Amino acid sequence: MHVLSSHQTTALLPFEQLIQALEAYFQEGCEVPLRHNHSIAGNNSGEDGILLLMPAWQPGKRLGVKTVSIFPNNHVHGLPGLHSVFILYDAVTGAPVAILDGDVITSRRTAAASALAAKRLSRPDSNTLLVVGAGRVGSLLPDAYRTVRPIERVFVWDLRREAADALVTKLRAQGINAQAMDDLADAAQKADIITCATLSNAPLIQGEWLRPGTHLDLIGSFTPAMRESDDECFQKSTVFIDTSEALLKAGDVLAPMETGVFSEQQVAATLEQLCRNQHPGRTSVSEITLFKAVGTALEDLAAASLAYDTFLDKHA
Asked: How far apart are CA 188 and CA 156, in angstroms?
């Protein structure tokens, strides 16, 4: 069984190949049970930990499970609050074949799925990208989007200006025209694509800011209490989701459904349906499109399988 480090896992998942791998998995299909959620008591920190188990498999091919441990008070130990590991198995024999860095897999597959959706939902000539949130996933989005669209200019906004400045410095070092923005409304109104990767509990993007032809990507929020957009964003957009799970757990979707400005029947398509050409995606240059994602274990399995196969090829 191979153990692939964070550095190795990153190097084995270039975005061009990862986006193609995700697309293939969505086209082929994958068994994805609901994730398991367990409370872990007795850590003496005053708050229980959480263990998430996220399995997925393609019969006769690959089987995998991502374990995520969330211990909110880890800062007192000088440790991150979240750790993740992915275990990859042979689905025929059940034999484990590799352990990979789950944090790298999660962040890179999230950015890749965002770009995969934008490949079908944003205008082909989109060249200005606004990144809202400059954290682990947000910092990867410019590279992912430049794989599928001719991005020439990147705006970065973050609640912490120093985080936005740090990402801009990194992007400029790569030769990318990047700029930190203080005025989110101004940045949104100048962008062709707006991608949000935050943990916000209050709407950041206002529907009134969205110009005709804009693509809005919401990938940060994943609980009913979290929101990155207001109701008007859903009211004036053609809405797409990654999986039906988004309808059960994403505050961005649940809030406009509760106020009656949006309904489940108004979802145009899932990412699987887009990848299988069961929906055309964007239908006009003036259409405003919105993609809401909460993540799926299918993407984890696709990423882990790509990394492992590439590793074997390089060490054959």
From this structure: 10
Model confidence pLDDT, tens digit, residues 225-240: 999 999 999 999 999 9
pLDDT tens-digit readout, 251-305 = 999 999 999 999 999 999 999 999 999 999 999 999 999 999 999 999 999 999 9
* Report field, pTM of the whole predicted structure over 0.85: yes
Is-contact 184 157, C-beta < 8 A?
A: yes
Half-sphere exposure at residue 162, Cβ-oriented, CA atoms within 13 angstroms: 0
Tell me how far apart the 2 most distant CA atoms of the chain are, in Å.
Answer: 57
Sign of the Cα pseudo-torsion (1, 39, 134, 295, in order): positive
Distance CA 217, CA 17 (A): 21
Confidence class of residue 146 from pLDDT cuts 50, 70 and 90?
Answer: very high
Could you tell me the sign of the dihedral formed by the alpha carbons of 149, 154, 160, 162, in that order? positive
What is the rounded CA–CA span in Å between residue 76 and residue 225? 26
Continuous segment of H or E residues that includes residue 177: strand 177-180
The enclosing H or E element of 38 equals: strand 36-40
- Calpha distance 149→123 (Å, rounded): 9
Output the CA torsion 161→167→168→169 (10° steps): 110
**Nearest one of 297, 282, 230, 295 to 118, comparing CA atoms:** 282
